Amino acid sequence: MDEREKKVEEISRQMSQNASFAGFDHAWRVTQIALDIGRHEGADLEVLKIAGLLHDIGVPVDKPRHYEIGAFLARGILKELGYDSDFADRVARVIETHSRYGGPEPDSLEGKILQDADAVEYVGAIGLARGIVRAMEAGRYHGDVNQVPDLIDDLISQVSGKLHTERARELLQERIDFLKSFKKRIQEELDGKK
Length: 194
Prior knowledge:
The protein is mainly alpha-helical. The chain folds into 2 domains: 1-111, Hypothetical protein af1432; 123-194, no CATH class. Helices cover 69% and strands 0% of the residues. It has 9 helices and no strands. It has helices spanning 3-15, 24-41, 45-54, 66-80, 85-96, 109-122, 124-137, 148-159, 166-190. The N and C termini lie far apart (48 Å).
């Protein structure tokens, strides 16, 4: 990791300190997933790494428009760190197109991969834990474990059939399989069968 990448990582940590569900831990996991997918798809890994680390820096400013604000902020940060304008613009465009909840559709391989990686990170063991906390904060879950199977179904429905790359579909299916297995087990326990 070169000095500029270290600075990007540091900036990502600082800017996401107060971002519920979009903190540095999330950005780091999305980045790792994006790099995995990118290696399989022949993407520009440098663009993916930097875009992954910065993809949610706009969340603390304006969550509904975080993709737009994040792209603007990232472009300025990267130019300040000495990245050339073309690279900064490519990263910013990937960030601008990463959200499944608004913004333009991805128009580059890297944009599609980042959107996929964000979706894959949404599910699985960590995704379930984060989903329960999100539901509690939104007032949709109040600690009744009987609601967990429905929360699992909701997580799965948010990402099923919405991916661009084959590798992301493989990673997602593995996580969905885990969630389905967990749902089966928790339902058995709720029914007094285990």
